[in-house]
Specification:
With 470 residues, the protein is α/β, with parallel strands linked by helices. The protein is 32% helix and 25% strand. The protein is globular and about 80 Å long.
């Protein structure tokens, strides 16, 4: 009887081993086919697959080679944020004042101090839109009997670094919505829209029909022309933080009006401007000026501090923010999270501080710093270098955590697979989870740098390899 049981165990072990070898061989064959493709002639590939239950490596090609990961790097920021900041974390914005309140008059400064909330005024969440922020501020003033302000109104963005842009971000990304950095106070996800009216024929100049926000002190120079019908938005906006001249180049398609989105060059100043309009509309007048901390610092003036708090505005919960961070790949959220980590740990709202803490976190989880060279929290910088084995380790770690369900839900679905994508110039990446038809669960990461030819063709070839896991 014992011999029979032993034989059965050996048989099933052989079957499992054969199946494991089969998937490994299939992945190897599919990878070799991709490497022989003309699109890969000058490219670098990293590909790693692990058993999601045991963590054992199923297949690896250049698993430990550092490659630019683009937005697939966001998984490191998201997972570390859950652990370091906590699943119950919310950003805060404090409404306060100095001086005193006498007979309905605030004799002092009204101060609104931000701590990097990327959702303040966001259109994505119910209850957090501009009109909601307006209503909350008005309610706070009325509740405390403030009908007038004998002083200044200060938007204090000073909790975070004066330089909001992470190092390594390309010049041609600055000014576009996806290149919006994190400020001490963010507003409208630091995004504005330009609506263009195309010319009547190809190569004719376009005209600007509307700009969604009145950017303080900014002039937009439009140099775009009309492209072929159906060619999409091929425009680019060059307008760095604190910039006053924006240049828009590229093409917009023939036909209907097209909207392109840019990064607000000074969100705290825009918020101060809109706050002035709100209070005037509410007949709450101020004898002073409406400005922000960065302008006071630039002019070598002292930034007033809050002595008394009136109210605190909270962001949506962490789960909701991580959902949009990964689903919509919002770079601003990644930069806000790493700065929040830096602020929580060392009261330094700086990219380098937060990124350093995140790298230390992952080193403690077994990922060497040479295998995770983060420059920012979003993956936008081409100076980021990750190993695919590191991304696999991170996803394996996440799978064991109490917040995993929310993290898994936040991952987008492409080609029927739950995975985070990454795209910057000459880089395409995917990392995620796959359950096979036989019930086996896998974790994987694939990064390609410096490929030839079109993006869409390469993506389809990457899908062919990942389909092996189904």
């Amino acid at each position: 009887m014992k011999k029979k049981i032993f034989s059965i165990c050996v048989f099933f072990s052989f079957i499992c081993s054969t199946q494991a070898q089969t998937i490994t061989e299939k992945l190897k064959k599919a990878t070799e086919k991709l490497l022989d493709d003309t699109q890969m002639k000058n490219a670098s590939l990293g590909f790693s697959v692990a058993d999601a239950e045991t963590g054992a490596t199923v297949y690896s090609y250049n698993g430990d080679i550092g490659l630019s990961p683009a937005s697939s790097q966001k998984i490191f920021t998201a997972i570390a944020s859950y652990d370091i900041l906590g699943q119950d974390f919310r950003f805060i914005t404090i409404i306060g004042y100095n001086g005193s309140i006498d007979g309905g008059v605030l004799k002092g400064d009204l101060i609104i101090k931000g701590f990097g909330d990327p959702t303040l005024g966001s259109w994505r969440y119910k209850g957090f839109k501009p009109e909601d922020v307006h209503a909350k501020i008005l309610k706070s003033l009325k509740t405390n009997g403030i009908r007038a302000i004998d002083g200044n109104v200060i938007v204090d963005d000073g909790a975070y670094a004066l330089q909001p842009m992470p190092g390594g971000w390309p010049w041609n990304d600055m000014g576009n919505y996806y290149g919006a950095p994190c400020w001490g106070l963010n507003w409208l996800e630091n995004q504005y829209d330009i609506t263009f009216r195309p010319g009547k024929k190809i190569e004719e100049e376009t005209t600007i029909a509307k700009i969604s926000e009145a950017l303080p002190g900014v002039t937009i120079i439009n140099q775009t022309t009309t492209g072929e019908s159906g060619s999409g938005d091929q425009s680019s906006i060059l307008l760095p933080p604190f910039g006053t001249t924006g240049i828009v180049t590229g093409t917009l398609p023939l036909g209907k009006n097209t909207t392109a989105s840019g990064a607000i060059p000074n969100p705290p100043l825009l918020f101060a401007q809109q706050l002035k309009q709100w209070l005037e509309k509410d007949t709450i007048y101020s004898t002073g000026t409406f400005t922000c901390a960065n302008q006071l610092i630039i002019n070598r003036q002292k930034v007033p501090t809050i002595k008394y708090s009136l109210d605190t505005l909270f962001s949506p919960p962490m789960d909701d923010m991580i959902y949009y961070f990964l689903q919509k790949s919002i770079n601003l959220y990644g930069e806000s999270l790493v700065k929040a980590i830096g602020w929580k740990k060392n009261k330094k709202g700086e990219t380098s501080e937060g990124v350093g803490i995140v790298r230390d976190f992952w080193e403690q989880k077994g990922i060497a710093k040479n295998a995770l060279k983060m420059i920012d929290g979003s993956g936008l910088s081409p100076q980021n270098y990750d190993a695919v084995s590191s991304e696999v380790k991170a996803l394996l770690y996440a799978k064991k955590q109490p917040w995993f369900e929310a993290f898994y839900k936040a991952l987008p679905t492409y080609n029927g697979t739950k995975m985070k994508s990454g795209t910057i110039a000459m880089c395409k990446a995917y990392t995620g989870y796959q359950k096979s038809s036989n019930g086996k669960n896998y974790v994987f990461s694939m990064i390609i740098n410096n490929y030839n030819g079109g993006h869409d063709a390469l993506v389809n070839k990457m899908y062919l390899i990942l389909n092996v896991l189904k």
